[in-house]
Amino acid sequence: MSAPAAAPAADASAPDQTFLTDVLAGLSGDPKSLPCKYFYDAAGSRLFEAITALPEYYPTRIEAAIFRDQAEAIARFVGPGAVLIEFGSGNSEKSRVLLDACGEYVGALAAYVPQDISGPFLETVARRLRNEYPGLPVLPIIGDFTQPVTLPDLPPHRRRVGFFPGSTIGNFGPGAAAKVLRTFHDAVGPGGGLILGADLIKDGATLEAAYDDAAGVTAQFNRNLLTRINRELGADFPVDRFRHEARWNAEQSRVEMHLVADAPRTVTVAGRRFDFAEGESIHTENSYKFSRETLHALAAEAGFTIETIWTDPREQFAVAAMTAE
Ligand code: TRP
């Protein structure tokens, strides 16, 4: 899973106050919105995994192909004896090709540091990796990648290279994305590196299909946010009366996900009333798409210089290697 940080689970008897405050604030806005980090409860995380395997959802497959095709070049960018830090590592699946390639082409890493919000899961993954990569120090750290990173005790004087795949960077607005990259910059330090996966601008039909698949999995994923709000915050959204919509906003270079009311509706959340006009939407997520130019600009804003951008032959997805100034 490369999903952004999951919020801790709660139930209606002890509603998570931050979750409640965020939901009430989002629904009070004009236009209405909800924060995307709350997608990832247990059901949401499962649905997200299913999205990554959908025929329409090309990013996961194309990024994996770039990692495979460019494994040697990426390993050389990481360099011998470096510390590899994956931000929001989930099951660490995407790091394996890098760990293998480093072993094969440039020699062992000094350490692999997976960072994730879920502590117990992180330990399970770390144990498995230690078995599969004997001799590789696996030093997990619990944390939210939007916050400053506290690194474990690392071998001194080693190059540090961050890894942030999956175009998760695209789920942040331009200012917030630069801020996230800046925290990675501070974690790797001057001379350190970052390998960033980023989805590229393409035709609107391909983009909208990727976020609105024929099997309806992404629709389920989007609506699950309302199911979660009903369950954990005692709300009464008529979940199947909100239609999933993916809209390519070319001007802002982002795919927007919305939940659109089918008719005038009134919803109560923790005793507060929210009215929806027919066709009124809740904006639940953005997925920004990049060009080479906007990637260079974003990197520069966070104190990085891009060395190489690897893409697939059709230029659908990019993997950028950058150096911290
Ligand atoms: N960051 C990826 C993207 O924007 C994965 C992702 C996040 C996603 N939220 C999603 C994919 C919602 C589909 C639907 O593409």
UniProtKB/TrEMBL annotation:
PANTHER family xref list: ERGOTHIONEINE BIOSYNTHESIS PROTEIN 1
NCBIfam families given in the database record: egtD_ergothio (TIGR03438)
Tree of life domain: Bacteria
UniProt xrefs under SUPFAM superfamilies: S-adenosyl-L-methionine-dependent methyltransferases
EC number per UniProt: 2.1.1.44
Disulfide bond listed as a keyword: no
Domain (Histidine-specific methyltransferase SAM-dependent) ranges: 21-322
GO biological process, one term: methylation
Keyword list, A-Z: Methyltransferase, Transferase
Protein name per Swiss-Prot or TrEMBL: Histidine-specific methyltransferase EgtD
Molecular functions (GO terms): L-histidine N(alpha)-methyltransferase activity
